[in-house]
Amino acid sequence: MEQFIYLRYQYRIYPNITQRKQMSVTADCCRFVHNYYLNMRSLAWRTQHRSMNYNACANDLKYLKLVYPWLKEADSMALQEELKDLQLSFEKFFSHSGGYPKFRSKKESGISYRTRNQNGGIRLSLDKHFINIPKIGMVRIKLSRDIPGEILNATLIRKPSGKYFVSLTLKIESASLIKGNHGMEHGLDLGLRSFYVLDDGTVAPNMKYLYETNGKLIRAQRRLSRMKKGSSNYIKQKRKVARLHEKVCFARHDYLHKESTRLAKMCSLLCIEDLNIKGMIRNHKLARSISDASWSEFTKMLEYKMPLYQGALVKVPRFYASSQTCHICGHRNPKTKDLAIRRWTCTVCGTEHDRDVNAARCLLQKGRTMLPDAA
Length: 375
Ligand SMILES: [Zn+2]
Known about the structure:
By secondary structure, the protein is an alpha+beta fold. It folds into two domains: 4-174, no CATH class; 184-268 and 275-311, no CATH class. 44% of the residues lie in helices and 21% in strands. The protein contains nine helices and 14 strands. The protein has a seven-stranded antiparallel β-sheet. It has a five-stranded mixed β-sheet with strand order 10-9-8-11-12. Helix 1 packs across helix 3, helix 5 (208-225) runs antiparallel to helix 6 (232-266) and helix 6 crosses helix 8 (286-308). It is elongated. Mean pLDDT is 89; it is low at 278-283. The structure holds zinc ion.
């Protein structure tokens, strides 16, 4: 295991009016710098077949500040970070893993920009009620949990709901995080009816409250679409939609974190299906799209949490059809492809199966054989 891991922790902050203004000034300047250098880089290429990299842009920025002195009001590190991001999006474009970088328009909804921690510019006050942010000063923070590592950078965020957050990238010593587990071995089948089922029949209920809030969200969005853009009712409704959206997002995240931590604490071995997320993303049904997003997020959480509790996560390839194979005799029953079939009887050994529990048991059996030290 590597010596350090990098995690992002998000906290609610409560900037005062002056600090809010300063944050939006920096965000505006970041957008300006992004658009300006996107344009410059495109021009340099189109007219002179010359590429303009990060260093060239950062160097040029000094002169741009003479032309537009108001750029000096912004956090200069945030402007540099913006140029780095632009560089990254160009690199993605050139390696065919992303589209051509886009111009950004002013959004009244939300803002966000990133700044670096240089010489302790980002630090907590002694009483831990405030955090110092470059060019902003001491901002009140709700320290919902401790900061267990070195702060590398901070992203300042204003959500469309009007709430403010700071998201810190932390460099954490892995050793300080490593804990033991309870030594259990499980197979886990992700599903639509319930979020997951374990091989011993344990069922994690689906995020039902999420769907309920989602229903509200859809109705609120529909109402919004019928309103006159820019009217005061429209603005009010837009806030309402944003708040509901945030609620869904938080609740989902919270649930996934709780479940993944619980499993990581419990298991020394956890076998799951290696889902082909790419193949599933093109599904427009609401329930499916939420599950798909949750599944990939959940898998990512397990990937970093399992090693922290010294457990192993095994991803069983998709072509191993866990839901169609009898875990007792290994007979494959293609009829069970139909998702509606909840229970089935193996035609060879006669065992009666619960579809999900059998799948989880198959995953556990298959996963055990995939461990490095398995014969
Ligand atoms: Zn069988």
